[in-house]
């Protein structure tokens, strides 16, 4: 099947979800024990894929992982409506993309379990070029948009500074992360993906 028009992020994320062995697509039975990022049906496929996987694996294994705490609210006020759109989203769909305030007592879904996955860290355009006060925040979400949360500078000021340094003068970065609790991610800021993913 070939799409007739550009895909939005949600649809692209669904197509990019790997639900089986990294190499053959069969049922997953094990993960790479070094990085926990890729899954295989068995040792034969894992051995065969090693030449492709070893660069990513060694990169993540040697990286420094930091635990950050996130929340539903982007500001102390919380309870706001939001819509995250990109150039592939149709203007006719914007109404369906607006999301109401989330239940602050319910943790965001975790479709990744303990597996590492890519997270997009994005600075709000309204904050771009600001004085990086303690009220700063970044929007975090995965490719499937299974969660959209905020990382507040005032919660993790030292680690937030590492995130700001990684972003530099840009608006976004992609980094590997693992869910470590309902409201925490372990993130590897010093090891970027080899190329920016199609998001």
Quick take:
With about 200 residues, this protein is an alpha+beta fold.
Question: Could you describe the 3D structure shown?
Answer:
By secondary structure, the protein is α+β, with helices and mostly antiparallel strands. It contains four helices and eight strands, in the order αββαβαβββαββ. The strands form two sheets. A six-stranded antiparallel sheet has the order 3-8-7-4-5-6, with helices on one face. The longest helix is centred in the N-terminal third of the chain and has 20 residues, at about 45-60. The mean pLDDT is about 80.
Secondary structure blueprint with pairings:
Blueprint: H1 9-15, E1 30-31, E2 39-40, H2 43-62, E3 65-69, H3 94-97, E4 117-123, E5 137-142, E6 148-152, H4 157-167, E7 172-181, E8 184-188
